[in-house]
Amino acid sequence: MSILKVDNLHAFYGKSHVLHGVSFEVEAGEIVALLGRNGSGRSTTAKAIMGLVDCEGGIQWQGQDIQGRKTFEIAHLGLGYVPENRDIFPKLTVQQNLQLGQKRAGKNGRWSMDDMYAMFPRLKERQHTEAGVLSGGEQQMLTLCRTLMGDPDLIIIDEPTEGLAPKIVELVGEYLKKLKERGISVLLIEQKLTIAMAISDRALVMGHGCIVFEGTPESLRNDAYTRKEWLEV
Predict the structure, then answer these.
(1) When you count CB atoms within 10 A of the terminal residue's CB, does the N or C end of the chain come out lower?
(2) What is the pTM of this model?
């Protein structure tokens, strides 16, 4: 069953027309990789879903239309968003950042502070440290965990492995699979084929603001034309 449905989505930055009729769905408990080169429209798609850019078309979340809603309203409905720029609060501690992520106060979510620290022990070690002095990998962990503290049903993650060491990339991939084990769907925006092909159930490829491929990771692996034409491999 689809929990997110994007239908004929067009997005704009001023007079610039960036997305041209993007359509796809994400099923409950599914990891979908949204691939493509820089400038293909992947990040704009995420921002459009979250109400951060002007757009036209259909965006349905669990059967209700969310196109045109405020970003905070969309987040409270159960969509989590981890932006590419690791949007942390640099002057607040690790623990304070995590506490700010708790959007469903008083409700028992799937994740607790202890879960976050168990998943990333380094964050526990630095829980009283200002987030602005963390390494890039640590900030990425913190941004992901802060989003999870809101107990989303789907999490949109934009370039989670950008600039990270190979060992940290593997770690991020393992924990994205753990999200699926807890019933959380993932829309993974990536350039690196390795992690996307290893953990995703389906792959979408974007080019020039359109979806140019949709299929299983295996079918993409066998599609030499798509990989050469639309992906950086």
Answers:
(1) N
(2) 0.91
